[in-house]
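--- STAGE predict ---
source: upstream dedup step, 1 unique chain passed
mode: sequence only
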Amino acid sequence: MTERRKAAPLGAARTRVPRIRRPRGAALRIHAHVVLDRLLAAYPGAHCALDFGNAFELLCATILSAQCTDKRVNIVTPALFTRYPDAASLSAANPEDVEDLVRSAGFFRSKTKSLIGMATGLVERHGGAVPADMDALTALPGVGRKTASVILGNAFGRNDGIVVDTHVTRLSNRLALTSQSDPVKIERALMPLFPQERWTLLSHLLIEHGRQVCLARAPRCGDCMLSDVCPSARC
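--- STAGE serialize ---
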């Protein structure tokens, strides 16, 4: 039997948390710079959490990271990289063997198909090398713009895009950097607010803050260095 919730006493006062207005125009650009400066001070060591030794390894790891934690991917990839150290070996792999190696990363059949398809594309179109080009990367099986931006920014030092994952989506909205929910539209909204040379690092900073402080279910606003400028702050 469903238990009824007790109604609040009539006239009971509700605690109202004053909200900071969402910035617009020039104020939004200033707000973005404040956010970036404070995150840089808070997380000076922010970096890609995936373990990799070269662009090919990062490409494999990023494909595996879809709906999987970076920690789990880092457990899976050492054996994968030992067995298939380059695109040529992975393109010729038996799918069942790859599935066994990546099974714990989830969606192992589709990820195996993407890995082998990506490796085959590298061999057939680029001589086995990972191209440092957005269009060439996104033309590979299993590689979208987000994955390509990860590779370009972290393996080649090219800031051609902003990686928008669940953390970046959540924080971008909470911090009123954008009201968009679609990753492509979020990226387009963030690009003009931040210096291009910071685009790759921006994602790492937002992800780090999302993991440590601005949690999805219970954000620790009382410990947040951005609470005084955050329209979503609960403290």
